[in-house]
Amino acid sequence: MRSKKKIGNTTFIVNSFFPQTGNQTIASKLENLIKADVQKQTVT
Predict the structure, then answer these.
(1) What is the pLDDT of residues 18-34, one digit of tens each?
(2) What contacts 1, CB < 8 A, 6 or more positions away?
(3) Are 2 and 13 a contacting pair, CB within 8 Å?
């Protein structure tokens, strides 16, 4: 999957992939990433 986002004069292109044999959905993976980010912010 490829996402493209332009902010000002900069274009960001993000490529992502998920293993076919993985047992997590995209939603659960994103939820885990957000939780980890929140934990990191509260520690600092």
Answers:
(1) 667 777 787 888 899 99
(2) 15, 16, 17
(3) yes
